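Progress report, Aim 2. The chain analyzed during this reporting quarter is listed below.
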Amino acid sequence: MANGATIDVLYFARIAELTGKRAEAWPVQAGMRGADLLAALTQKYPDLSQATRLKLAVNQTHAQPDVALAAGDEVAVFEPVTGG
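Predicted C-alpha cells for the chain:
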C-alpha cells in the first residue's frame, strides 16, 4: 500500500451478495489497474468466480480493465445487465 492511499470500491446487485458488502476502502498502489483490482477481489472473495463478466466504472464512468486507478477514485464493480 502506498502511504495509506485507498480507493472506494462499491459493489452492486449480485456482486454485493457475493462479497457480503456494499462498499469498502481498498488499498491502491502506484500503477494499479482495474484488472489488478478485479484479480485481488477474486482472490479475497472466491465466490466472485461465479460472476464471469465483471464490469467497472471509475468515478461514475464505464471503464476498461486497463484503466489506471488512483487514490481517491470511486470504483464500482458490477455485472452487465439488460433490460426490456
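The chain has two helices and five strands. Strands lie at 6-11, 23-27, 55-58, 61-63, 74-78. These observations will guide the mutagenesis work planned for the next reporting period.
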